[in-house]
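Why do we bother with holo predictions? Because pocket geometry can differ from the apo form. Keep that in mind while you read this record for arginine.
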Amino acid sequence: MTDTTRPGASERPPVRTASPRRFLMCRPSHFGVSYSINPWMHPEKPVDGERALAQWTRLRDLYRELGHTVEEIDPLPGLPDMVFAANGATVIDGKVLGARFRHAERTAEGPAYLSWFRDQGYSELLWPEHINEGEGDYLLVGRRLLAGTGFRTDPRSHAEAQEFFGVPVTGLTLVNPEFYHLDTALAVLSDDEVMYYPAAFTPGSRAVLRELFPDAILATDEDAAVFGLNALSDGRHVLLPESATHLIGELRRHGFEPIGVDLTELLKAGGSVKCCTLELRGH
Ligand code: ARG
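The structure, written out:
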């Protein structure tokens, strides 16, 4: 039997279609690196605020050019990491699971994001019992929620998310502190495809990923080191750090349209494309 889903040397990759998305982003007006809660953050090294804003603006405009809707939440002073909107909540079927941060430096972001949703008229909101850092650790693939743990999100949050959303949750354990959130080690490409960096996971979690996604694109050490997996796909276009050249080639081979972006100023805080983007599903 020939496997037509896997593009071989002679086979054509599948035709990809984009679906319009709704995103929430937070302008990096107060962005900076004044503390260190992950190995990428070096407060002694300078950050160019203007450059960060220009890079972020380019990403937001790209989404709009691709036909997506981008909403913005007002950035708050004293919360330099608030630009990483992915961490602000998890939204599925219009239901909003609030974020409860691991580090004191970011705890005020949880209520700030949750009240944005309340103000927008979202009615099914849950202030969580357990620590979870939103879409940093929760990634929806089709109707399955992949759930990271190991550094930030408490594994007890996984059951809380499953009960709240009513979708199956699959836990995955991260082991490398440089890839402290699931969205730094794995990216969702379509309803049943992902790309990931195996070395970021425990052997058991790697086996689960192989079982669920036998044909997944695997990132090299070089891809991972430039945050290539911190990517956002609309089903056709995949926005990712432009220096992830191997992944860009692989995505093209699989029929996607990779779009390289420069978010190197934001990388100084340990974030890139996906971290800046929270998907608003159903509402
Ligand atoms: N400095 C932030 C932190 O360590 C970066 C968050 C990146 N966000 C993400 N979704 N991975 O919490």
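DSSP finds seven helices and 15 strands in the chain.
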